[in-house]
Write a structure and sequence with these properties.
Blueprint (H helix, E strand, L loop, with lengths): L2 E7 L3 E8 L4 E8 L5 H13 L5 E8 L3 E2 L4 E2 L14 H9 L3 E5 H12 L7 E7 L3 E7 L2 E2 L31 H4 L1 H10 L7 H9 L3 H25 L3 E5 L1 H5 L3 H10 L12 E3 L6 H14 L1
Parallel strand pairs: 1-4, 4-7, 8-11, 11-12
Antiparallel strand pairs: 1-2, 2-3, 5-6, 8-9, 9-10
Helix pairs in contact: 3-10, 5-6, 6-7, 7-9
Amino acid sequence: MKYAAAIDIGGTNTRVALIDEKYQIIERVQFATNPENPQETLEKIAEVIKQYSGGVVGAGMSCPGPLDLYQGKILTPPNLKGQWHDLYVSKKLEKMIGIPVYLENDANLAGLAEAVIGEGKEYRYVQFLTVSTGLGAGFVIDRKIYLGAHGFANEVANSIMIQDGPSHGTIIPGGIEAISSGTAITNRAKAAGLHVKHAGEVHDLALSGNETAQKIMEEAKNYLANYIAFIYGYADPDIVILGGSVALKIKGFAEEVEALVKNKVYDVIRPYVKVHKSVLNEDSGLLGAACLVFIKQS
């Protein structure tokens, strides 16, 4: 039996898992990420992986973007700072654990997992969108992640949907992440005077008849549908899969967005529109990291 080490480095926590060829998670650990100094975090990762028994053929690693995926390099993610920036993390970890390390962003890996073992496994062209803290994407063709000329394909967060529209963090005003992500929904509600902690509470207020919450949720779904309709007209995927807390925890979210998309595309495209929610939940990134290893090693 072959195994893959799956690594998910986040700004707050890092997860490491041992996954077999049947995509069963055998072991999993989590610990705090040092967001300033990568050495501490990488040493903990290496320590965990070295404890695994034989048969580990490689490691797949998810890191926040932007990344240089062709060079295995972390660029300037806002939630990893200091010595993380411009770090050739793949080569560094390879020297520490003695097996190949493959770097990808989290949305690409989640999309790969959906294409190989998830909701998209029966299809060739699989578009994944995560609607959570941020809004990320990955496009998988015949079980291969489409990276583009420079590795920046599907870095969609700054795609402008509203001229001079809302913004948050480093997102350009009107970017899709500033309208449809969980953070955007929550921040827009707070700015409008609503007392909420997360997007689910905004949704609940909308259902109770709060007009401000209704407008925010309607815009989040409508502009996301606009963007997905654009994807269908441009890339013609077999299926669009939605992951992330907003899409998974808000009942009926994917179904509502699908219905909206069908009214925004050509009549000939409409029968092919499929917007489904992920079946892999929070493990999609780890499973995608294992998929990447086994595909690279095949």
